Amino acid sequence: MITLQYLLWCFVTLLSFVQGAINVEEVIQLQDDNHMIYLNPGNIDSIINGIRPYYVAVLFTTSDQGLNCGTCDKFLPSYHKAAAAVNALEKYQNLIMFTIAEVHDNKEVFRQLNLNSVPKVRLYPPSPNVTTTLASEFYEYAVTEASFDPLHFANAISKMLAISIVVPQDFDITEFSSYFLITFAVIIIFKKLVISKAPKYKLLQLFSVAAVLMFVSGYMFTVIRGIPFISRDENGEIMYFSGGTHWQFGSETFIIASIYAGLLICVVLLAVTIPAIADDTFKRDLLTIIVTGLLFYIICYHNGIYMIKDPDYPYKLLSV
């Protein structure tokens, strides 16, 4: 039987949660110029606990030089850049509240959560419940050496929330010079060996094929959504293919374009070039077998890429 005393206790408990909560506008006022909120015992409960319509990203870290946390110092700029990138997009403003919880300011919180090492990053989803706390459901991002690249952390946030985040890259004069020299050399070689000797209609055909491959490979998709050209996994290794059908890296489009080019070459060889060999039946049959095998290999390779992006895809061919 529910007693009046129990009902009063429930009412007081609910009222304490509601009174302790603050609205979005008040949370925004706690942000500094870098869109960052530093958590402390006076604000951590009201920002994270209870009902809230926004995500909360919490970086558990330390700036105490006595603790000698080099990883904390190296990851902090990536965290700041991701926060700035999200808040730079009007439609995503206030979608995520980026916060930092320092060890020396939140010792009791670290003890309650049993956090014995830093840095740790947790992403708390919006909550409709008044009983939500720091111990409630969350997504955790593993900080590794790859995390020192702002794109890695931004990609993780993008996948968790299914949004597109563009992180401005610092200008690297060395990298720019390398790309410039390589591009310049390729243009000079192409001009001397191809443009000066090939007929104009051949150049037009080449340009048309290149344009078609660029557009069907999804290159414009990555440009429009501002997706990074390459990304790295938790071990710092380059990720050539993203793990989702709604997302692809810039480098992935060039790989797909190369596959399409290979398929195109095989089809042209089988339909036009090889049948034109009329004086040597053995050579024609041998080339047909070789090119057909190559065509099947490319199709299997392309199928394998799609299996990476969608493991539940039912039409699996040979693994290559």
TrEMBL record:
Transmembrane portions of the chain: 176-194, 206-227, 254-274, 286-308
Membrane topology: Multi-pass membrane protein
Main localization category: endoplasmic reticulum
Subcellular locations according to the entry: Endoplasmic reticulum membrane
Gene Ontology biological process: protein N-linked glycosylation via asparagine
Keywords: Membrane, Signal, Transmembrane, Transmembrane helix
Gene Ontology annotations for the cellular component aspect, listed alphabetically: oligosaccharyltransferase complex
Cleaved signal peptide residues: 1-20
Family, as annotated: Belongs to the OST3/OST6 family.
Name under which the protein is recorded: Dolichyl-diphosphooligosaccharide--protein glycosyltransferase subunit OST6
